[in-house]
C-alpha cells in the first residue's frame, strides 16, 4: 500500500506556485517538493491543517491511499 500526495493537483486547480504555497503554509519550497514527490515519511497534523487552510480543502484532497499489491486476490482470480 502507498499514500499518494496530491498537492500538485490542488496547486494547479488554484493556479498557485510552490513558492507561494510554501510561504503561506510556513514551509520551505524544498520541503514542499519532498511532500509533492512522495519522499516524506510523515506529515505533522499542524502542517496538514495549514495546507488544508491555505488550499481550502480536506485532507483527503491532498492524500490518497492506493493499494499497490498487484497480486490477484482469490475473489478476483476467477476461481
Detailed description of the structure:
- With 79 residues, this protein is mainly alpha-helical.
- The chain has a single domain (2-69), classed as 434 Repressor (Amino-terminal Domain) (Orthogonal Bundle), CATH 1.10.260.40.
- The chain is 49% helix and 10% strand.
- It has 5 helices and 2 strands; from the N terminus they run βαααααβ.
- It has helices at 7-14, 18-25, 29-36, 45-55, 59-62, and strands at residues 2-5, 63-66.
- The protein has a two-stranded antiparallel ribbon.
- Helix 2 crosses helix 3 (29-36).
- The protein is globular and about 35 Å long.
- The model has no long low-confidence stretch (mean pLDDT 89).
- Residues 13-62 form the HTH cro/C1-type domain.
- InterPro entries: Cro/C1-type_HTH.
- This is Helix-turn-helix transcriptional regulator.
- Pfam families: HTH_26 (PF13443).
Amino acid at each position: 500500500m502507498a499514500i499518494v500526495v496530491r498537492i500538485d493537483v490542488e496547486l494547479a486547480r488554484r493556479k498557485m506556485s510552490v513558492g507561494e504555497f510554501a510561504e503561506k503554509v510556513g514551509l520551505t519550497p524544498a520541503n514542499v517538493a519532498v511532500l509533492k514527490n512522495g519522499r516524506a515519511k510523515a506529515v505533522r497534523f499542524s502542517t496538514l491543517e495549514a495546507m488544508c487552510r491555505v488550499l481550502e480543502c480536506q485532507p483527503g484532497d491532498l492524500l490518497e491511499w492506493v493499494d499497490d499489491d498487484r497480486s490477484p486476490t482469490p475473489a478476483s482470480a476467477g476461481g
